[in-house]
Design a protein that fits this description.
alpha+beta, conserved putative lor/sdh protein from methanococcus maripaludis s2 fold, Elongation Factor Tu (Ef-tu), domain 3, OB fold (Dihydrolipoamide Acetyltransferase, E2P), 4 domains, four-stranded antiparallel sheet, 4 helices, disordered C terminus
Length: about 400
């Protein structure tokens, strides 16, 4: 029984080897006979899914400058709608009000400072006088006491006058500083580079006099509550407009508001605003409606082959790899298909070569060859069973 089993095993192995050899010879003869094998090198390609949102280009900043009646009446509005302004450009001015003579104030300040100095000298003299009275031996004690009381009274009066003079100095200094500040603040200046959007020449207290829009643009988009989780600050996006075909712009999401601005009447979903800042200069103008493409699930430099290189059999995908003048059937995992190219998730490496259009004969021969080789490996690994009885 043992010898019979052995001969059967050897016979099966020989048959398999002969089939594999013949199969290989057939494949290689096909390769040799067709010197022009149509192959393609596996190259990297970026695959991504896009979420698309609608938006509009708006000025990045809008600044309004308001009338404050406490600062007086507006004497002159210096700009008109459509004017270009820069940081520091005067927009409007307030009246001067009562004209204050700064020279008079400075003269009064000088007089007050002189008075303080004179009173300091008087206090010094009184201190010397008090010391002399104390050390004068010709005076009786009662006389000394009376004289000291008189001197102390003069000192108190002089110190009081000095404090008043010092207060005058401080007040005059304040008035002079206030006049200088008011001169500067009579003019209201622009705080950004941009264009005058609106001018109100007869404002009420607290109303805007001039509104300026910045030259820099940003995109304001809208997203509903279901798509909100797909967005994040600092995401890179692409901005497209039908008004500017073939001129897409790149940008970065900078603001994603966490409070809805409205609830859509049709869907009942909350809507949120988000802002995208442009990464480069664009010809698109404020008010342009745009489409915002946000890439999701991006796979950079993924192995990619033509769709016709893929062999599909029994719900599995294969390619025929051409390596060192030999062909190998290899199982692969497909991903996304884009413009006739298939994303390969596993099974292939960059720079490998595959048949562009593998012939069905190649596929069948390679498949049978690999199955037989696997069967041979299983046969070799199978342990011999001793069927002879022991007695």
């Amino acid at each position: 029984m043992k010898r019979k089993s052995l001969w059967i095993s050897i016979s099966v192995t020989l048959v398999i080897l002969l089939f594999i050899t013949a199969n290989t010879l057939v494949i290689q003869s096909v390769i040799a006979g067709e010197k022009k094998l149509d192959t393609v090198t596996v190259k990297g390609k970026t695959y991504q899914e896009l979420s698309t949102f609608e938006g509009i280009l708006i000025p990045e900043l809008e600044e309004s400058y308001y009338y404050q009646s406490s600062r007086g009446n507006i004497s002159n509005v210096l700009v008109k709608e459509g004017d270009d302004v820069s940081i520091g450009t005067s927009l409007f001015e307030y009246d001067d009000g009562e004209v204050v003579n700064v020279s008079d104030l400075k003269a009064q300040l000088n007089k007050a400072e002189t008075a303080v100095s004179v009173l300091d000298d008087q206090l010094s003299d009184l201190a010397v006088q008090s010391s002399r009275i104390e050390t004068n031996e010709d005076l009786e004690d009662d006389q000394k006491l009376q004289l000291q009381l008189d001197v102390e009274e003069q000192i108190r009066n002089t110190e009081y006058k000095k404090r008043l003079a010092e207060l005058d100095v401080k007040e005059l200094e304040r008035q002079i500083a206030e006049v200088d500040t008011e001169k500067v603040e009579l003019s209201v200046d622009s705080t950004l580079d941009g264009t005058v959007e609106q001018v109100n020449r007869t404002p009420e207290d607290g109303e805007s006099v001039v509104t300026v829009l910045s030259n820099k643009l940003t995109v304001q988009g809208s997203v509903n509550e279901l798509d909100y989780p797909t967005l994040a600050v600092d995401q890179e996006v692409v901005i497209r407009s039908g008004a500017y075909p073939g001129q897409p712009a790149t940008g970065r999401l900078t603001i994603l508001e966490d409070r809805p601005y409205e609830v859509d009447e049709e869907t009942g979903l909350s809507m949120y605003h988000f802002n995208v800042i442009l990464s480069e200069e664009s010809e698109m103008k404020a008010g342009t409606h745009v489409v915002i493409d946000v890439p999701l699930h991006q796979n950079n430099n993924a192995p990619s082959v033509p769709t016709e290189s893929i062999i599909e059999k029994d719900d599995k995908s294969y390619v025929v790899v051409y390596e060192e003048d030999e062909l190998h059937l290899r199982k692969v995992e497909q991903g996304r298909i884009e413009n006739g190219k298939v994303e390969i998730l596993s099974g292939l490496q960059l720079k490998e070569k595959v048949l562009t259009k593998p012939r069905e004969a190649f596929t069948e021969l390679l498949s049978e060859k690999e199955e037989l080789e696997k069967g041979q490996e299983d046969q070799d690994e199978k342990p011999e069973v001793d069927t002879e009885s022991k007695g």
